[in-house]
Each structure stands twice: as C-alpha cells, then as structure tokens.
Amino acid sequence: MAAKPSMLLLDDEPEILNALKRLFRKDFVVDIFTDGQDALEALMSKEYAIIISDMRMPQLDGAAFLGQAKQVAPDASRLLLTGYADMESTVRAINEGEIFSYVSKPWDNTELKVLVKNALARYELIKKNDVLSGKLVAANTKLTEANAKLEERIAARTAALNKQTMRLKQSTLKQRKFFRQLLDMISVIIEDRAGHENGHSKRVAAHSKVLAEELGLSRAEAINIYLTGMLHEVGKVSISDELLATTEIERNPEQQQAFRSHAVEGANILSRLPSLREVATNIRHQYENWDGSGYPDNLKKEDIPLGSRILKVVSDYDYLLLGHKHAQKLSPDRAQFYLKEERGKQYDYKIVDKYLSLLERLPEIDELEADYCVATSKLEPGMIVSADVVTQKGSIMLTKDTELTQAAINKLKAYEKDNECFLTVFIY
After folding, report:
1. Cβ 310 vs Cβ 208: under 8 Å
2. Which residues form the Response regulatory domain (predicted)?
3. Residue 127 domain-assigned (yes or no)
4. Per the CB 3.0–4.6 Å rule, which of 16, 123, 336, 386 could disulfide with 371?
C-alpha cells in the first residue's frame, strides 16, 4: 500500500485545524500548527505535498508564511484560507508565495476536497517531472541536438494537453459542482418534508453505493444506485402531514397503501428525465418484497430490480435505527437481527448477508462518504459524533462533532441501562 502524502495545516484557531484534520485524515498524514515559525521548522525537516495556511495569523501572517514556505518547499502546493476582507493580502500571497489557490471562509467541504485533489495532482506531476528531468539530463550528454528537438515537441505537446486538460477540468468541476448542489438541495427539501433527521438520504445513498460495489456492480450501476438512495423519498412531497407523522407499525392497511404510493409518485417525477429512468424504476419498486407480497406490482425475487432490493435493505435498516419503521428506535444489533429474520420474506438473502458483513467493516472503508450508527458497546474514545445524541425526552446528551472520551461513553451506557433503552449514536 502506497504511503499517504503529508499535509501541513497552519491556523491559530484549534477548531478550524481539527475540522480540516477530520476532513483530510483518511487521505493524508496531517500535521497541524498554530505558530508559523514552528511550521517553517517542520517544512525544513519533512516533505509536504500540501500546505494550507490561514491568512490572519499573529506575528507571521499567511502571505508572509507562504512566501517563506515557497523558498523552503517550492514543490509543495500552497493554499490560503482567507476572508473577503483579506483580498489585498491574498493578492500579496499570490505574488510572493505563488499559491496554488485560495479558499474563502466558510468553505464547502466538497469543493475544498476537489481543490486539494487538484493541488495534490499538481504536486505529483512536479515530482514525476523531476524524475523525468533527471533522466533527460543524463541522456542529454550524448543526445544534445536530438534531445533539444524532442524537448521542443514535448513542450508544444504539453502546452496543448495542459490547455485541453484545463478546459476539461473546468467543465467537469462546474458540472460536478452543479450536480452536487442540486442533489444536496433536493435532499434537504425531501428530508425537511419527510420530517427525518438530517443525513438519512445521504447515508442510505452512500451505504447503497458501497454495497453495490461489494456485490460486483459496475461504477455506472453503483452511481445509479447512489442516486436512487439520494432521491428515494422524492415522492413524499405528495403525502399528507398526518400520514408522514406515522410509523409503519402504526398505519392500517389503507394508510400503508396511501403512504407507499410516494414510491410510484417519485418514479413518475423522475422518469421524465431520460438519464434517471433506471433510478425511477428502482424507486418505484422500493416496497416490493422478496416473497411477492409487496407494492406496487407484487414482483417476486429476481424480478424485483437489483437497485430496489439494495435500497430496501439499506433504507429499512436506517429507518429501524431512527424509529421510523417501528414505534421505537432499535439498536444496531436489534436492527440487524430484524433484517436476518426477514430474509426470504421482505429481503433478498444475498443482499442482507452482504450488507451485514459490510456493516462490520464500515470503519475500515475509506470510500464511505457518510456516517454510520454504532452501538454504545462498540464506541471507542476518539470517535467523532456526526449528529446530536438525544435522550428519549429529546434532551441533548452530546452535540454534533463531539470527540468521544471514555467518560462520555460510560455516561451513554449508564443512561441506556437506567432507562432500559437504546441510544442512536452516529459517527463519522
């Protein structure tokens, strides 16, 4: 396994440093500093691929630091965190520090990840070019004239490719940004309408995508299943407030039929877009059961679209944890037991078994861009809470982004024991 590249973060605010470290710790070895001189000393003893500095720093500001960092580590990609009021200093950082780019506060995590990915690509390209340059210099002693002509051709070709690549990157980034913004907007609207805790759709989408890949589906198929997860509740805009406020176990057959109609309604909405017709089909059949007793077409076994079967398992598991399927929230163990018991009735055996195996390995999967639920018995110090942990009466025990300590874990376990209940704890 290739070693992770190193990233240096400089900011005088520990909260910002911790937020950035959480964002990039899966992909980088992250070193954090609150003092510019300490950071410069680190640059002299260790090679960093990415350097990110805040503009407003005591003593040595971001522009001055990056200017010196350029001298110490010229190959590293340098980025500046800045506010709109710092534009004059930002221009100075661009001129003196030759920064790769700057990021306005507050930043968007997705956009920042894309920017850092491009900055890393630039750093790796420089390193590769250094190796190639060394070989060319060695060969130049024997092939000076031929090499000169070759370099001219390479330069022309590189310029053309860089120009083409830049245009393609800009176009791709704009499309991805727009698409993600659209998905996020739709997800927020859906969850607000459905009355769910924030994160249900994203969690179901991310888990479904990884599960699809585990089942051997292609990248294109996995992306379609991801979209299925993000949009599976879009039809709930047509459901009444009273019906949305009920859980599955509380509904009579007539109400259940009316509630499930959102699947058909959502499919009708999405099928108007040719590129989303497969997603629409998956959403239409999300309530079909493996034994043929489902809705709307009583499809059975493999006649049910694979995306629908995946969605049903993952979505129902999340509903069980959140308390939207039964009258109360279930622990991860009890929710998993429910899935096992319903294999061959509601769910596909193969998909349930694969998902249960996946749930055991979620902390090890770097590709998972979502949180996941952990029983209090399996919590460990250092884990980061991704959503408020609340009591049965709605009081907040732990706030979002809290780093768990052993004392906090003991407190959660004691509450469960004293109140004979299960707490829903989601972590990054």
Report:
1. yes
2. 6-120
3. no
4. 386
